[in-house]
Amino acid sequence: MCDVLLKGVSSIKWQSSLRWNYHQQQLDLNSRTLRTKHVREVTELSVLLGTTYLTQGGIRINVSTFVTHASFDPEDAYKNDIAVVKISQSLILSSTIQPVILPSQSQYTSAGLTATLIGWGLLYNDGPLSDVLQQVDLLTYSDTECEQLLYGYPHAHNICAGVPGGGKGQCSGDSGGPLLVKGVQIGIVSWAPKPCTEQDYPEVYTEVSYFISWINRNIA
Questions:
Q1: Where is the Peptidase S1 domain (predicted)?
Q2: Residues 186 and 141 in one domain
Q3: How far, in Å, CA of 59 to CA of 46, rounded?
Q4: What is the tally of structural domains in the chain?
């Protein structure tokens, strides 16, 4: 989480780390996690669950398969940037492992909401990953604002969020992580202008509500 070490988070029970280049994920339903573009062709993966530290605690479970959206397009501003990952065994929910709350399909993300980004990404540009889960509050932008500020933001299935003036937000290692409003996951970290948080531009997230039907079909 670049340029900000707001505070360590110890109470998050649905965050997990995909153990390939530390791209993080969040628990969805039973033995499945949401994920995005970065590991489409990787076959040896595991997921770390039940801890807010990258290097201690928790349990590690192998990934058995994943389904990337058929219309994912990295050449078109990461259009349809979402996938479903299935792990190799069922989970037993506990005090440290719980499912994240997803939005309804009809839920619309309005501008001006306080949204919380959570992740283990770089603490500053070109810096180290955080060993402790971090969080930062951002503001959601309207589609019109995003179209004016970002080239390549035409997609109805995206959310923009950030901080006017920059200085806080997603960085390398935060990809696939959650954006939440009042405990509901509205977005998944997709992309942002580089270097991270150093420019006065919003960041782009996959809008979860747009893909609820697709998620349900692929976890059945």
A1: 1-220
A2: yes
A3: 10
A4: 2
Residue-wise pLDDT for 184-203, tens only, equals 999 999 988 888 877 778 99
**The domain containing residue 202 runs over which residues?**
114-209
Are 88 and 157 in the same domain?
Answer: no
Q: Flag whether 8 is in a domain.
A: no
pTM, to two decimals: 0.85
Taking residues 89-95, what's their average pLDDT? 88
Using CB atoms within 10 Å of the CB of residue 72, give its burial: 0 to 12 exposed, 13 to 18 middle, 19+ buried: middle
The catalytic residue positions are 38, 81, 175
Asked if 95 and 121 sit in the same domain, the reply is no
Burial label for 95, CB within 10 Å (0-12, 13-18, 19+), is exposed
Assess whether pLDDT exceeds 90 at residue 137: yes
User: What pairing do the DSSP bridges indicate for beta strands 59-68 and 46-49?
Assistant: antiparallel
Instruction: Tell whether the model's pLDDT for residue 40 goes beyond 50.
Output: no
Residues 90, 172, single domain; the answer is no
